[in-house]
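Issue 218. Parser rejects a valid record. Input:
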Amino acid sequence: MEKERLIAIRRELHRIPELGFQEYKTQQYLLNILKQYPEERIEIETWRTGIFVKINGTAPEKMLAYRADMDALSIDEQTGLPFASEHPGFMHACGHDMHMTIALGIIDHFVHHPVKQDLLFLFQPAEEGPGGAEPMLESDVLKKWTPDLVTALHIAPELPVGTISTKSGLLFANTSELVIDLEGKGGHAAYPHTADDMVVAASTLVTQLQTVISRNTDPLDSAVITVGTITGGTAQNIIAENARLEGTIRTLSEESMRMVKERIEELVKGIEIGFRCKGKVTYPSVYHQVFNTSGLTEEFMQFVADRKLAEVKEAKEAMTGEDFGYMLKKYPGFMFWLGADSSHGLHHAKLNPDEGAIETAVKVMVGYFSEYAN
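Output the parser choked on:
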């Protein structure tokens, strides 16, 4: 597939961002392209708003998989691009439009250039939330088409085009969404002694949560608790009877994640006693760490460097969350960063990745699969 065609596809996908498990237009757009290929070369299965694509090998003994996520974010785009989002309030601000386009480029190559092994492409919905990888792994399709290796990439705005970066072992952190609801007794602002103020309770809890990192986490370990939003109250002269804190937890080990959650729940119990209220802690989405398989990852890095397909840099582990970690928990494989050279970062309303990264990624994965699948 020509570079210009891939860029046009990416821009068309960028125009129609959709949230997790609502990727109806996106799914149909991809199917319209995929169904143009000969049926004897390609098999297609759908799962919810996702798609499985299998390219049959000439003498298959293994199945190699590549995953591309599909969903967008609840962000008002501010790029001013002529192909900006046509869906107000939504934007491909994490590069999933790039990821899908790259997958199509790889598929197109191998439809026309058969290899020995089977290739499987997973267009996965709901990576940003509520999490599509874990339920996708339980699909009947993956019981029928079970990969021996699974790979994926993620654009990296801070890296130049022509660069990839990864490492063996831990690449992305364990992550968990955090929601804390507090419920007390509201009242008139002039009579605070007759009420239990949930704004004060929530404010106290925010400061206490920071002590979990500073005083309960091993200083040689790493963890993060971020409270992103606080909501509470209905009017300036009414003492709030409800408050909600929403945030995220990031840790570099599963043990630390368990410890952090235990301490959060203990602190909320203390708030219940101290402020005569009820507290509820929930974790809507929890993502397993991305842990690259040693050996496979090193071989991939060496292969790309030796063939000069891209400049290879050793990555550092990041507190980024990615539900691809569930796939690596079940199958051997790896994920890597793809340089995309944007002045604005991931999840930013002005993210504008360099489309030259598409060509780099297709070249890298076509080269790697051509070698590994033969």
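Fixed in the parser; the record now loads. The chain has a mean pLDDT of 97.
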